[in-house]
User: Fold this.
Amino acid sequence: MSRRWVRELARQAARRYEAAGLMARYFARGKLAGDPMFRALLSPAMLPDRARVLDLGCGAGLLAAWLTAAVDRHARGDWPLEAPPPRPTSYTGVELMSRDVALARLAIAGWPEARIEQWDLRDAALPPSDVILLLDVLHYLEPASQEALLTRVARALSPAGQLVLRVGDAGAGGRFRYTMAVDRLVCRLRGLALPALHGRSLPDWLVMLDQLGFAVETHAMSEGTPFANVLLVARHA
Ligand SMILES: C[S@@+](CC[C@H](N)C(=O)[O-])C[C@H]1O[C@@H](n2cnc3c(N)ncnc32)[C@H](O)[C@@H]1O
Assistant:
C-alpha cells in the first residue's frame, strides 16, 4: 500500500465531512492518512470480513468513513491488497458527544446497515457483535468503569468474535505522557471540557483482559508517530 494511495483513500473518506466544514474535513484527512491503525484495520486479521461491528466511542466515525471509501475503491478495481477490505454486515457506532454523533452520521450516510447511537458507554446496551472496537477510548473511563464495560463487552461478543482495543501504554514513560498531552490538546481545540484520563501499563491491561477470559495478541501501533499506542486483539480464551 503506497503512501500516495493511502493519502488518496484518506482524502476520499474525508469528503464525507464536507457539510461539517473545512476543519472537520482536514482533521479527518490528516488522522486517517497519518495514523497507522487505520491502515492496519484494512487487514482481515484485525477486522474480519462480513462481521457485525460495534464501534464504542466512535467519535466522528472515522473508521466508518474509511471503510466506506475502501469498499468503494475495491469495487472500482483500485485495491492494492490481496484480501478485499472488511465489509461489515452491520455497523453500530456509540458516542457520547452530540457534535461527534452528528459527524459520525455524516460518515455513515447512504450505508443502510449502519447506525450511530448517542449513549454513555457506561450505560449503553451492547448488541451481540462479532467485532467490538474500543479505539483510544478506555482511558476516558475510571478504572472500575473500564472493567465493568469490558465485562459487558465479553458477554456481547460472539464465541468466535474479537475485541480490538487501542490503548496507550502508561509504562512507556515520556512517550505516554506525550500521548496524553496530545489527547488533552485535541480536546481543548475541539472546545471540550478536559477529562480526567486513566491509563494503565500494557502488563496491567493484559492482566485485566486475562482475568476477563480473553486471550490477547499485541501489536505496536505507533509506527511513524511519537505516541505510545498498542493495538490489542482479544478473543475468548
Ligand atoms: C480519542 S476519541 C477516539 C474516537 C474513535 N474511536 C477514533 O479512533 O477515531 C475518544 C472518543 O470516545 C468518546 N467517549 C469518551 N468517553 C465516553 C463515554 N463515556 N461514552 C461514550 N463515548 C465516550 C469521546 O467523546 C471521543 O469521541
